[in-house]
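Researcher: Here's a chain I'd like modeled. Treat it as a single chain, no partners, no ligands.
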Amino acid sequence: MGYMNHAEPYNDDYLQDILSSVETIAMVGASPDKTKFSYGVLRVLHETGYEMIPVNPRDGLEEIRGLKVYPSLSEIDRPVHMVEVFRRSEDLVAIALEAAGIGAKVLWSQIGVYNERAARIAEDAGMKVVMDRCPKIELFRPFWKPKLHREI
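Model: Modeled as a single isolated chain. Structure tokens:
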């Protein structure tokens, strides 16, 4: 299998297929701070109907928006379809390894988060990879909104 070039724009069908097939999304770097972009993305994805699992190792942080927070991907007690990353690009390699270890199908990194080595690790593990994109933005692109079969 060849590797994708993640510096090029993604095919619309590729992104649509991911967003319409995943149900459970673990968000690494989820924040309880309502002013943070990650909080808004978590809220919108959750309200759109995805099962959201916040991941943040901060001591004493037990829930965000009523959702149980897990300290790491490996401690999540159910299957995860997609791992979405709100962390620095240099953290992505370790996250890719952990995502592969739990059998996630997709590694998606937020706008500004990009690491080729992490993409290779995920692709070698059979995962689909999206980098430097926001699922909230992609979800609301008008040309596929009717195709997702989700209440918005």
